Amino acid sequence: xxxxxxxxxxxxxxxxxxxxxxxxxxxxxxxxxxxxxxxxxxxxxxxxxxxxxxxxxxxxxxxxxxxxxxxxxxxxxxxxxxxxxxxxxxxxxxxxxxxxxxxxxxxxxxxxxxxxxxxxxxxxxxxxxxxxxxxxxxxxxxxxxxxxxxxxxxxxxxxxxxxxxxxxxxxxxxxxxxxxxxxxxxxxxxxxxxxxxxxxxxxxxxxxxxxxxxxxxxxxxxxxxxxxxxxxxxxxxxxxxxxxxxxxxxxxxxxxxxxxxxxxxxxxxxxxxxxxxxxxxxxxxxxxxxxxxxxxxxxxxxxxxxxxxxxxxxxxxxxxxxxxxxxxxxxxxxxxxxxxxxxxxxxxxxxxxxxxxxxxxxxxxxxxxxxxxxxxxxxxxxxxxxxxxxxxxxxxxxxxxxxxxxxxxxxxxxxxxxxxxxxxxxxxxxxxxxxxxxxxxxxxxxxxxxxxxxxxxxxxxxxxxxxxxxxxxxxxxxxxxxxxxxxxxxxxxxxxxxxxxxxxxxxxxxxxxxxxxxxxxxxxxxxxxxxxxxxxxxxxxxxxxxxxxxxxxxxxxxxxxxxxxxxxxxxxx
Amino acid sequence: xxxxxxxxxxxxxxxxxxxxxxxxxxxxxxxxxxxxxxxxxxxxxxxxxxxxxxxxxxxxxxxxxxxxxxxxxxxxxxxxxxxxxxxxxxxxxxxxxxxxxxxxxxxxxxxxxxxxxxxxxxxxxxxxxxxxxxxxxxxxxxxxxxxxxxxxxxxxxxxxxxxxxxxxxxxxxxxxxxxxxxxxxxxxxxxxxxxxxxxxxxxxxxxxxxxxxxxxxxxxxxxxxxxxxxxxxxxxxxxxxxxxxxxxxxxxxxxxxxxxxxxxxxxxxxxxxxxxxxxxxxxxxxxxxxxxxxxxxxxxxxxxxxxxxxxxxxxxxxxxxxxxxxxxxxxxxxxxxxxxxxxxxxxxxxxxxxxxxxxxxxxxxxxxxxxxxxxxxxxxxxxxxxxxxxxxxxxxxxxxxxxxxxxxxxxxxxxxxxxxxxxxxxxxxxxxxxxxxxxxxxxxxxxxxxxxxxxxxxxxxxxxxxxxxxxxxxxxxxxxxxxxxxxxxxxxxxxxxxxxxxxxxxxxxxxxxxxxxxxxxxxxxxxxxxxxxxxxxxxxxxxxxxxxxxxxxxxxxxxxxxxxxxxxxxxxx
Lengths: 573, 573
Known about the structure:
Two copies of one chain form a homodimer.
Chain A: E1 3-9, H1 16-27, E2 32-39, H2 42-50, H3 56-59, E3 66-72, H4 75-83, H5 85-90, H6 105-111, E4 117-120, H7 124-136, E5 140-143, H8 150-162, E6 167-168, E7 174-177, E8 180-183, E9 190-197, H9 200-212, E10 217-222, H10 235-246, E11 252-257, H11 262-273, E12 279-283, E13 292-293, E14 296-298, H12 302-315, E15 335-340, H13 343-353, E16 361-362, E17 382-385, H14 389-392, H15 403-413, E18 418-426, H16 435-452, E19 458-464, H17 473-482, E20 486-488, H18 491-505, H19 521-524, E21 529-532, H20 535-543, E22 548-551, H21 561-572
Parallel strand pairs in A: 4-5, 4-21, 5-6, 9-10, 9-11, 11-12, 12-14, 15-17, 15-18, 16-17, 18-19, 19-20, 21-22
Antiparallel strand pairs in A: 1-3, 2-3, 7-8, 7-10, 13-14
Helix pairs in contact in A: 7-8, 9-12, 13-18, 15-16, 16-17
C-alpha cells in the first residue's frame, strides 16, 4: 500500500539545483516510489495534484514554502526518507572551497576587479535588487531569472541604458559574448555574424545552425522575451543592434524575436535599415509582404535565418548599389511620377515603394485611400496606369499607342517638384512595333526642358520582352539608354533604385539612438564575471576559461521581503 | 491664332486602331497643331479638357458618339482637316482581301473548322454576346475587351466551366498557348514552366523574365483581373491550375495575381497544394508568414517568381520527401503532443503547423484563443513549453532537469488518440550533461507501452547544438536514433515532417474541382483561331504561323443595343 508523507518548510529558500538533487537522492532511498520537492506555487501544486502527490497539507503551502512529498511502499519507508532530508541537504558539497565564496556581490567584485559582467539566476523576486546594485557598480547584467515584474525590468533598463550598460533579460536564457557562452549556450566558433535575440532558444538554435553550416559568431546578445513589448520599448534590443552596427568584426546581423509590438517593430527596423550591413530579420510568425528591403532580409524560420546569414557572410549581397548622383537635382525636386502601360507593373511598383516612401498616390491604388482624385492631375508621388479602363474606352491601349503617355511625360517635365519619371516599355506581339523609337525622343525632349529650367530629370524604365520579340529587347534598351534613361529588365531593380533615390532626396531622417552607446571594447575584452544563483553557470564559465566568482548568496533579511525592501531603500539613499 | 473645330458622329462605332490611325493622319495635315479622336466617354472628355481640346459641343457627346477635334493655325486649316475625315477612314485598307472576311463568327468558324479559339477585343458592351455564341460553338474564349459587366463575366464563366471550356478575361491582356502568344504576348521559348495569371503584364513580365533566364513556358493562361474576386470565385484560375497540374509537360507552376479575396485565396491554395509539383505563388502585396509550405513557394515580386521557377525547373526541390508510413498507426491515432524545453522552438513549431493543422493548442500559444486551459492536461493537438514560468518557479529548467518531461512523455504514450510526440533536445553549456541518456530510454519505454497496446508512437526530435558542445551533438543524435526517434538538427524539417504526417493521418480532404475538366489536348494541338476586333491580334497570330480568320465585325443591329438584345434573346431560345 502506497503511503504519502509531506513535509513543509515555511519560508525556506533553496537553489533549484539543490532541490533537484534532493529529489533524486530521495528517490534512491529504499521503498520510495516517487517524490516531489518544489516551492509551493500554485502551478507546482497543480502539478503535484496531477501526479497524485498533493496531500491536504501540501495544498496549504505558500509560494515561499518548500514542499517535500514522498510516496513510499509503507509508512516506515516514507518517514525514513523524509527524516533524511536535512542530512541530504547538508551533504551536498563536501569538497567545497568556501574561502572563494564571498557572501555579497560587492565582495565578489572586489575579489575579481576585472569582472565586467554579472550573471543573476536567483528567484525572480530577489533578482532586480541584485541587478540594480551591479548596474550601480558599472557592470553589464545577464539576468536569467524569470518572474521579474515588468516595472522592475523597465526601471533596470532605464538605469542601464543611461549608463551605457546592457541588461540582458529578465528571462534571458543565453548569450555569447566574445566567444564565451553565458547561461544556456552552445560552443560555436567565432566569425562574422552577430545575433540579437529576444528569444532564448531562438538564439541558441540560430547560432548552433550557423556553426553547423560552417559560419561563426561575433556576439549573440539576448534581451529577454518582453524587451520588444510596447512597455519596455526594445531598449536592450536597440542597444545591441547599435552595438553590432558599430562593430567592425560583425559583417552580418541577425535579429530574432516573436512578433514585436507593431510600433516597436517599426523603430527597430528603422534602426536596422541604417546598420550599414545586411540584417536578416526573423520576427517569427510576423507576416511580411516583402522578402527584401535594401539591407533588410526577411525570413520566417530560424533555420532560414541561419542559412541566409551564412550565405551573406560568405558571398556578400552580390550587388553594388547604383550611384544616386543626388547633386544633379535642383532644390525642390522630390517627387516621382510613374507613367505605366502595364497595370501589374504599376501595382508591383506601388507595393515595393511602400518600403521607401510614406505614400504614393495612384489611379489604380493598392489601397483606396491613395486613389488620385483625378488621374489626369498628378499629385506628390503618384503612379498612373494609362492602361486602366478610364483611359482605354474607345481608345487604344498605351502599349500600342504612345500618344497619351508622351503628352503626360512632357507635362510632368515642366513640374519643378518632379525629380523622377518611372515608366515601363512592354514589347512583344500586340504592342507598338517600336515603342522606344517614339518614347526615347520624347524623353530626350522632356529632359532637355527640365535642364533648360535648371533642373535634372531622372527617367527610369523597365523593359519587358525577349530577344526574339519582333521589336527586339536589346534594341529597345539601347534606344532608351541613348536617351539617358536608367534601364533594367527587372521591375524590382528599377523600383528599388527609384525608391532609394527619392528617399535620399527627401533626406530620410537618420534615427538617433536615445541611449548612451555601449562601449564596444567592454564586449571585446576577455570576459570575467560574478555569478549569483545557479552554480552550474559559474562552472560553465570556468570550463570556458573565463574567470568567475560565485557568490554564496542568501535572500536578504533571511527571506523576509518587507525587511529586505527597507534595507534596499536605505542602501539607495 | 489657334482655332478648334469639333465634329460629333452620333452612335458611330469604330475600332480603336482605326481611331488612332485617323488621329495620326489628321495631325500630318497642313496647319494642324493637335487632334483628339475618341469615343465620348466621361473620362475621354476629361482628358480632352485637360489638353484644352474640349469644345462645348464635344462636352455634350455621349459614350456612343465619336468626337473628332482638330486644333489648327486658322479656321481654314481646321475645316479642311475635318473635311478629310471620311476620305481618311475610307482609305485605310487599300489592299484588303475582302473575300477572307466573313461578317459573322459563325461564318468564320465554318471557314476555319479547326479553330478551337476565339479572340474578342470589340468594345466591352458588345463582347459578352460574341463570347456567349463562341462558347455555344465549343470554343475557348480569349476576351481582351474591358468594360464588361461582372454579371456577364460570371454568366460566361459558368457556361464555360460547365462545358470544359476556358474564358480568359474579360480584360485579359495576354496568354501563351502551346507557344503561341494571344493578345499582347512575348515570344518566349517553350519549356517546363506553366503560368496562371490574373494580371496581364504580370504574365508578360514573368514569362519574359523566365525566357531571359534561360527557362521556357508550357502554357501561360490569363484569367482577367476580376477572376479572383469573391463574386467570380476564381473559376478560370482554378480551371487553369487544374489543367497545368494534369499537364505532364509542366514541371513547375507559377501563380500571379494581385491579392485575391481571402476566401478565394484559400480555395486556390488548397488546390495548388495538391498539384503534385512545385507551385510558386506571387499574390503581389499579400503578406506571407511563410516562404514555403510543402510544394508551395511564396514570393513577393514578379522577378523573384521567375527566378525561383527557373531554379526549381532546373534543379528540382533538392529534397526527397520522407516516407510517412501511415500503415503503422492504429485507427484513432491522430494527435500531436509537443513537449518542448525551448520556448522559441515551441513557438516556431506552432507557427509552422498553422500551414498543416486547423488548430494546435499550447500553454504559450501564438494566439490566445488557443491557450490550453490547463498546461498539465493535453487536448487534441497541443504543444507544451515546459520552460514556461508556470513550470520553473522553484524548479530547474527542463533543459537541466528531464524529470517533468519524462513523466509527461510516458503519460502521453498511454493516450490512444496520440500519434506523434514532438520534442526538442537543446544541448550546450547550462544544459543537462547528457540529456539523451535519460530521454532515449524513456522514449523507448513510451514506444513499448504504445506497442503493447497495439499502437505505433512516432517520436520526432530536433537537436540543437554543436560538435564542440560538452554533450557532443552527434552523440545525442545517435542515442535518440537508436531509440527509433526521427531526428533532425533543423526545427523546420522536424515540424514539416510532423505536419505532413498528421495531415495525412487526418486524411486531409482532397479538393475536387467542381468544373468539367478542360481537355488538355485542346491546348496542345496547333492553335487556330477566329479574331473579332483589333486586327493586329489576327496579324500577330498569322506572324506566328497560326491559322486565323478575321471577322469583319459590326455592332449588331447597327449599334442599337435594345434591338441587339432582342435579337440575342431570340437566338438563345
